[in-house]
Amino acid sequence: MSERSKRITKAQSLQFVELLHALPIVIDESTPNRAMGDILSPARQHNLSSYDASYLELAMLRGVSLATQDNIL
Description:
This protein is mainly alpha-helical. 56% of the residues lie in helices and 0% in strands. The chain contains three helices and no strands. The protein has helices at 10-22, 31-45, 50-62. Helix 2 (31-45) crosses helix 3. The chain is extended and about 40 Å long. The two termini are 28 Å apart. The model has no long low-confidence stretch (mean pLDDT 84).
């Protein structure tokens, strides 16, 4: 989207993808099995999208902090 809207160049997009590939990203294979219970329930309870609730649930499961740019309400 950023490239299409001319906020970044094609070269910047490619550089970003290269940086992503360098990260030690681990895919959590168990998330699909938890999606309808462990994720859907807190999403409803806290009025979150399933996307946001997935990140919250994974952070809680792993015992790690979750960074956000949300405004404090």
